[in-house]
């Protein structure tokens, strides 16, 4: 019998067989490892790749399979894995605003192992920065070990500051900052600060700086309280209207070019981002420096927090004790942490680790400032943030509110702005509360 | 659709050879030939459709557990502001797809069909080519073309109409929809044009000659001959592109970096279904959204066929 | 009058040419972007004076891109072959035979064609979960193994085959399957070519279903792999563009080979229908 479908279909058939054969000889990896761990950050992935061999050497026969999963996909993939019982990893690193969504439903249905007793008994609760347990706690139970503190500073173009005659020591409060910012901003060409007007990733740190937040410790939605209103009234005129001093363009190569061009002079920079800046804008070596965040009022808090990661052990894990040891190995080993700090600039949540000399080393990129010491000094002041299964929704709703407020301010200016902000924030918060009431589980 | 339908069902082959096996294989042939289709279709098509109708009355936590909630999924859905946003965005997108894209496609097809045009084949290929790229790939490409300050779109539009270089198409809620419409214009104008062009080429040339004899000018010819001639295709394209628009998902999802965009400006119905249903594991809610979408699409397509007079009822 | 005519003619041609250039520009930019080093990417609008293969090297060294490519090829071509066989067989039966149940089948098919596929996604996922097909190639291929659209396409074209031809074959003692295989299919070649491309493109570009079904990155097809790449290496536009370029290349090559049949097939149903 000859093949009746013609050359096109025949070539498809041949391709199908050939690719099928190739795949048969290269089957998808079934995790052979004792422990499977997911992380979503490339920097963490590279660091753990170095730390895992010593763990494996300590435990003969144990094999750890570390996988890098994209930041956008990790939540949905983990959720799907929990729901279908397929490919559930043993340990996962979860991003701070995603963590809450896994604490939905009765405690016994949470996919993560309750680590409260292990953390309290090992004394870790006091040895790590307390504020950092809050985002991973639900109904008093702790489901994750904090990876970091992520204090926030302000990164700035030191060379341009000098050229323009700005003395960073004169900037103590946001009022100082805005006054100087208005002088040097040239619309469309140069801005004082990098801040987006379309999403709330940098609104959050400014909200936390004022002790605001999304949820209170009992899990009630507080994203429309007075602090949030005041933060919004402060934020929007920075990025919109005639007196704006902030703008943003985007990440990666656009960011590189914008910093090189001096499109904005300052960036909100938690420790992890100081590394991103080093990597993305290598040409600015020696021209950048860090200063504490301006305070809301004189003598007020000079920092905040942005981002974060926890490590959790899933209930699916067959060897929770071994997994716990791996978590401790990755998060507590002082020498490893010091090396990791050199590689990633990330200050670990373990307080006693900070007295290692690595944190005092001057950094040529940052005009020889001792980067670790600067962040560590601010770390004890990092504000608390509480979570809820609805944290991701709440953050999305805050972004929406921010965008609406920016639109309003662009159109109407100050007229009726405060009333609008109050109304709009309440609307967002009410939508979150409505969703919370619906939850059938 | 044209058909030949003899009234009697023939059970013996119209041939001299009538061995038992030959008769049997003749009689059984059509059943055998449709059975693989039918089995797969009933399992993976008809069953899920019916099941989803049932599932839409349950709240579920993944495939493992379900709680009967009656009409609660639908009542919550219909009063959810996010769903309203999704419907609104999708409808706006569909509106532009129909009223911007189709006239443009038809215009291009008319020009391309004129006797003056040189290199028709090449042009047709050029116009059609963007459709070869899937929505995901187009999404990745255009998310880069639309970046502020250094992106191609901004440089081009800055040069010709002077829009600000730092226009943030995908971060400004007012510009997300225009960006999506522009992108889909790029993707689909040529695709729909192919249909119009084929229809135009199939219009009987004698009719034009008769119209010219009657003294009709080009405008009259278009209304009296061209439009009636391409009407069946036009209705087909209209219905298909409306249905397609209502299923919009990949393009905004990729362009907006796996999100619904600033102020949900890029939230579509299918995206809403995916986010509320699959990401949280509420398959029941996903089914409810799916059926709401299906009913909406059905009503709109039937309306379109009614209004254009293409629906006469019956299937064959 | 003649002059006016000429000017008009020139204008129409110029307009169409400009429109074609505008349409092709993003693709030219894409090709240019893949060949620029990261430093040059935003410095030159299109091609840089110094071409670089950096993006392609970076792409293959950061992710197993060849594996995604092979996954996509396997899933798409297997789907085409299976769909082709089942759809043409059913299309043949519906075009050339009269049998009990034909009308209900036609009505069933037509009515599901109007339903958006998202309706059945949730229960289909549940079904595949129970069949243990979640996170497998089969989970992608089996639910889409028959294409209702394909059946209509083939039915339309097989209706053109004359009865005399089939009669003659039966007198020669051909079995019905033989008729399908040796007579009907060879004369339906143009439609097969069109169907191959349409079906290939459909699977190749499909995103939502693979995104729901696949868990293991080793099984990812190009659209979801590329989406994951956007998340992991967001900042590396050149690398992303290289991935995009390689992902669309197979479809473009296939189209070049099959374009005549494709356009005929695409419009056949609509114009005749």
Model description:
- The complex is a heterotrimer of chains A (441), B (316) and C (273).
- Chain A has a five-stranded mixed beta sheet.
- Chain A has 441 residues and is of the alpha/beta class.
- Helix content of chain A is 45%, strand content 12%.
- In chain A, helix 10 packs across helix 16 and helix 16 (391-412) runs antiparallel to helix 17.
- Chain B has 316 residues and is mainly alpha-helical.
- Chain B has helices at 20-55, 72-78, 81-113, 120-128, 135-145, 152-161, 173-202, 205-213, 218-246, 250-255, 269-279, 283-307; strands at 58-60, 66-68.
- In chain B, strands 1-2 form a two-stranded antiparallel sheet.
- In chain B, helix 3 (81-113) crosses helix 11 (269-279) and helix 7 packs across helix 9 (218-246).
- The longest helix of chain B is centred in the first third of the chain and has 36 residues, at 20-55.
- Chain B is globular.
- Chain C is mainly α.
- Helix content of chain C is 74%, strand content 0%.
- In chain C, helix 3 crosses helix 7 and helix 7 runs antiparallel to helix 10 (189-204).
- The longest helix of chain C has 36 residues, at 237-272.
- Chain C is globular.
- At the B-C interface, helix 1, helix 3, helix 4, helix 5 and helix 7 of B face helix 1, helix 3, helix 4, helix 5 and helix 7 of C.
Distance between the termini of chain C: 41 Å
Q: Assign the structural class of chain C, choosing from mainly alpha, mainly beta, alpha/beta, alpha+beta, or little secondary structure.
A: mainly alpha
Radius of gyration of chain C: 24 Å
Strand proportion of chain B, as a percent range, falls in: under 5%
Main-sheet strand order of chain B equals 1-2
Tell me the number of strands of chain C: 0
Q: How do the SSEs of chain C run, as a string of H and E?
A: HHHHHHHHHHHHH
Radius of gyration of chain B: 25 Å
Terminal-residue CA separation of chain B: 6 Å
List unreliable stretches of 5+ residues of chain C.
none
What fraction, in percent, of the residue positions of chain B are helical? 55-70%
Largest sheet of chain C: none
Question: What order do the helices and strands come in, and which of them pair?
Answer:
The complex is a heterotrimer of chains A (441), B (316) and C (273).
Chain A: H1 6-25, E1 35-39, H2 42-58, E2 64-68, H3 71-84, E3 91-95, H4 96-99, H5 116-121, H6 124-127, E4 137-138, E5 141-142, E6 145-146, E7 152-157, H7 158-164, H8 174-184, E8 191-194, H9 203-209, H10 226-239, E9 246-247, H11 252-260, E10 264-270, H12 271-280, E11 288-292, E12 309-313, H13 320-332, H14 334-344, E13 362-363, E14 369-370, H15 371-378, H16 391-412, H17 417-438
Helix pairs in contact in A: 2-14, 10-16, 10-17, 16-17
Chain B: H1 20-55, E1 58-60, E2 66-68, H2 72-78, H3 81-113, H4 120-128, H5 135-145, H6 152-161, H7 173-202, H8 205-213, H9 218-246, H10 250-255, H11 269-279, H12 283-307
Antiparallel strand pairs in B: 1-2
Helix pairs in contact in B: 3-7, 3-9, 3-11, 4-7, 7-9, 8-9, 9-12, 11-12
Chain C: H1 2-34, H2 54-62, H3 65-96, H4 102-114, H5 121-130, H6 137-141, H7 148-158, H8 163-171, H9 176-187, H10 189-204, H11 208-213, H12 222-232, H13 237-272
